[in-house]
Amino acid sequence: MGDVKVEVIPGIPALSAAAALLGAPLMHDFAVISLSDLMIPWQVIRQRVEAAARADFVLVIYNPKSKKRDWQLEEVRELIRKYRGDHMPVGIVRNAMRQGQSVQITTLSHLDVTGVDMLSILVVGNSRTRLIGGKMVTSRGYLERYGTKIL
What we know:
Layout: H1 14-22, E1 23-24, E2 30-34, H2 42-54, E3 58-62, H3 72-84, E4 89-94, E5 102-107, E6 120-124, E7 129-132, E8 135-138, H4 142-146
Parallel strand pairs: 1-8, 2-3
Antiparallel strand pairs: 3-6, 4-5, 4-6, 7-8
């Protein structure tokens, strides 16, 4: 193959930018799943989403919908609702930190999938996620464990 020069340029992943725009929805553990089935069979993706939903991970969804793949997001929403219920907060960030950026927080039952596309990232909360001051916040549990004596 020969010598290949590689230059690594550190950056901020879109999920970090989206999370910052939404508030503080990520915590100790979270799962990131792409709904694109170009390289991974849909059944495998579906199993991953179900495992993450059942395990109560905050869930970050990349590639939620495309022109050809327009039904999977609705199936995923129903699958997550089975484990999280209707009122679970969901953040939708499109074009995070770029021109045309939009940020919306809704619930699983009110999630309008028609405005979601490949430039969107969804963040689905877990059992600790709350809306505080219009932002998604997922508690890490320190207040419950240590009270108000946090340094």
